[in-house]
Amino acid sequence: MSKRFLTNFLVFLAICIGVICGISKIDFMEGMAVLTSDVFLRLLKLISLPIIFLSITSTISGMKDFSEMRKIGRKILTYTIGTTLTAATVALVLFVLIHPARIGSLAGAEDVVTVTKGDSYLSFLINIIPSNIFGAFVENNILGVAFIAFFLSIATLFLPMEQKSFLHQLFSSLFAAILKITAMIIKLIPLAIWSFVTLLIKELREGHGDMNQLFLYLSCVIGANLIQGIVILPLLLKFKKISPIESFRIMIPALTLAFFSKSSTATLPVTMRTLEKSGVSRKISSFTLPLCSVINMNGCAAFILTTVLFVSMLNGATYTPIELVGWILLASIAAIGNAGVPMGCYFLTSAFLIGMDVPLHVMGLILPFYTVMDMLETALNVWSDACITLSVDKDLAAVSAPVSS
What we know:
Structural class: mainly alpha
């Protein structure tokens, strides 16, 4: 029995046992699930920021010069922007076809969301630049940590070779130590998935909501995510002559963890280890994945676009075709930087609506269903990160391969 098969079998077994425990209503098992999930997420969050910081610094500081970093970065941004814009476009097409806002006013919605005017997207972008180096780590400011790592790494490329080598060795050694810790934590994945599934079933069992009123809206969001994950991203891999089925099979452990943990940043260690074991260059994975986990948010772009249009139209807003297309760009920009932020897409959408003077009572009705949507969106984001990393690795491998005469 191969190690990969055993891992997938244990994950499947954990899901089955989790469903049974969730349905059984056993207080002790639910209490253990809460404890297990909390400990596992704390462990992942403990290493997520160091991984982002050290993976970026160790990778860039080891490059020959700035031009090499720029070459890789350009490819990452091209794929990231392309996939995010595509996800938002798919969401808009589904929204226009299904037109969920035609159901009219939603009864039973309550204004339960509190977002202040100060939570504007502009202030969100300003917070990318931390005022204190240590504060970015203490406040769990993922974008701030990535910002510091990025510019510190670039600075090392302009240092004398002796100093550059010393810093690269330091960052690489620390990164190797973090990866050892990661390998130990990864062994707990089946146990963690059992706890996540148990709590999910419990939450769905106790949830309250009228699916009939939100069915069309949910169809738009979930449909956009499924089309992006099952059609668009596999087409990208196929275009790069990479097997989508084999890539998906390799990514099953990481995607399962992403689905149940609802955190692409927390899943980052598993994603990196999985792709590196499949043959992706560590230089590519340790630079591409941390960057993608921060800026590549396909699922979030689809959610923001669909939800803003849905809620605002229910409150009487109308849009011209040009304005609808403009929301593709706005939703894609707004999606950047939400990885690892609990309910980041939900609250950013609320901030958009507040800026448009749209009441938030419908957001209260969406809230009970957000957990399931967030799970699917997170898995899509991680799948997209993997597809981009595989594509970048294939591109650069082709460029560096010797040309036969």
